[in-house]
Design a protein that fits this description.
Radius of gyration: 31 Å
Strand content: over 45%
Order of helices and strands: HHHEEEEEEEEHEEEEEEEEEEHEEEEEE
Pfam families: Alginate_lyase2 (PF08787), F5_F8_type_C (PF00754)
Protein name: F5/8 type C domain-containing protein
Organism: Flavobacterium phragmitis
InterPro entries: Alginate_lyase_2 (IPR014895), ConA-like_dom_sf (IPR013320), FA58C (IPR000421), Galactose-bd-like_sf (IPR008979)
Largest sheet: 9 strands, antiparallel
CATH architecture of the largest domain: Sandwich
Number of strands: 24
Number of domains: 3
Structural class: mainly beta
CATH topology of the largest domain: Jelly Rolls
GO molecular function, one term: hydrolase activity, hydrolyzing O-glycosyl compounds
Helix content: 10-25%
Low-confidence stretches: 1-56
Mean pLDDT: 88
Length: about 450
């Protein structure tokens, strides 16, 4: 087995943040694996690894917890339940400076992030206390210590005490050690709060990239990558999918800056193609866009980075398209046009770092010029801002402000639309093995003038 391949498997283990029983067995038995078997393990691991960005970092939501019961280790007739009645005129009181306490039972273990406590005569004196928590009243940990500093001494209203970090516990005890004037301990009201991640994305892929159902259609999949994945030419036709909140870490997700398009070889695709895609198709007010490259000026500018190439049919190369102008299958002149221009990165199978070639394919090169055109000086994981322009029957491609390619069309130019995302190339009739391409887009604008 090659040292390089073993290194790659080790990297997969590190990225996954967990070692499943299956992967662990593979590591133990790696000396018996052939290179082909190890490649299969790598590809399967890449499907199960936690994506580096999933778009599921939620916002923090704070909620008030309701204790199931409350008890104390002594009172003067002002009982513990008074601290949960919502009335600052009632109180729990107990005399003693050696640890009189009141204990709240939440009924089950729950995340706890802060307490609000209102102290009787809290505007006249400081009360010395500790907040202790645990899953058993016989084993409590101090999570807030004001035994020597005390409360503010300036208000009878609820005062907030934030824990250094959220803790999970069933019991919350406030141990009291008298006040700055006497040995009495008196609490009028207690509120316990939990702050947790709501599990919903802070931002959704469509909002990050600035698209809407009026401007772009999303080609994507549902289901786990593999035999259960189902392709939809319009993902919003899938059950339960809403355009504005569509987020799937297998195919279409965000880290808040980039919207990611992830596509696996061996999955299904549209009826007009043999290569799978997770891609955007230009719309005009919700309907299929169609414009003429000889009338007006049509531009698409997008900031893109390609993080990984798939494995091609030959097993050694990898190519994917991340932007294109698509034309009609057959134009008004009877010419089969299909893709006018495809902007692609061309490199090695499963490549995720290093240099690649910018490859221009489609009718404009393959038919007009007799073959695709390639350009060096590009790398995976690097951000580029490209612009495709189609005007006067001529196609232009810019990298930033630098003209990379231009060519006049040799046939009629109607029926066009832009596409952007991740369209795998040269993977026709291959089986799913976990290999994928990954594209990030952070800005996408279209202009028709």
């Amino acid at each position: 087995m090659k040292r390089k391949t073993l290194k790659k498997l080790h990297s997969i283990f590190l990225k996954s943040n967990r070692i499943s029983g299956y992967l662990f067995a593979c590591l133990v038995l790696f000396t018996a694996c052939t290179n082909d078997e190890l490649q299969k393990v790598e590809n399967e691991a890449s499907v199960n690894e936690v994506p580096k960005t999933t778009g599921t970092t939620g916002k923090l939501v704070t909620s008030k917890l309701t204790p199931a019961s409350v008890s104390d280790n002594g009172n003067d007739g002002n009982v513990a339940t008074n601290t949960l009645d919502g009335n600052l005129s009632t109180r729990w009181s107990s005399d003693g400076s050696t640890g009189k306490y009141i204990t709240y039972d939440l009924g089950s273990s729950k995340p706890i992030s802060s307490l609000k406590i209102a102290w009787h005569q809290g505007d006249q004196r400081k009360t010395y206390f500790q907040i202790r928590v645990g899953d058993s009243t016989g084993s409590l940990t101090t999570v807030y210590d004001a035994k020597t500093t005390g409360s503010s001494g300036t208000t009878t209203a609820l005062e907030t005490y934030n824990l250094a970090s959220t803790v999970t516990a069933r019991y919350v005890r406030i141990s009291c050690f008298g006040n700055s004037l006497t040995t009495w301990n008196s609490i009028t009201e207690t509120e316990i709060y939990s702050t947790v991640d709501d599990g919903l994305p802070d931002a959704y892929p469509t909002s990050v990239i600035g698209i809407s159902a009026n401007t772009w259609k999303i080609n994507s999949f549902t289901g786990t990558p593999g035999s259960s994945a189902v392709y939809y030419d319009d993902i919003t036709t899938a059950s339960g999918v809403s355009y504005n909140t569509y987020n799937d870490p297998n195919y279409f997700y965000t880290d808040g800056t980039w919207t990611y398009f992830k596509c696996y070889r061996g999955l299904g695709t549209s009826s007009n193609s043999s290569n799978p895609r997770v891609e955007l198709r230009e719309l005009n007010n919700g309907s299929a866009a169609s414009w003429d490259g000889s009338v007006g000026t049509h531009t698409m500018t997008w900031t893109v980075k390609v993080d990984k190439l798939p494995k091609g049919e030959n097993g050694t190369t990898g190519v994917l398209c991340f932007g294109q102008i698509h034309g009609p299958s057959t134009n008004s002149s009877g010419v089969a046009v299909d893709d006018i221009i495809r902007v692609q990165f061309d490199g090695a199978a499963n490549q995720s770092t290093g240099t690649v070639k910018l490859k221009i394919s489609g009718y404009i090169t393959e038919k007009v010029l007799g073959g695709s055109k390639s350009f060096t000086g590009y790398s995976l994981g690097t951000s580029y801002t490209f612009t495709i322009k189609y005007t006067g029957g001529k196609v232009y491609l810019y990298n930033g402000s630098t003209l990379v390619f231009s060519q006049q069309m040799d046939t009629s130019t109607e029926g066009n639309y832009f596409k952007a995302g991740n369209y795998l190339q040269s993977v026709k009739n291959v089986s799913y093995d976990g290999s994928y391409g990954l594209v990030g887009i952070s800005n996408l604008t279209v202009s028709h003038q």
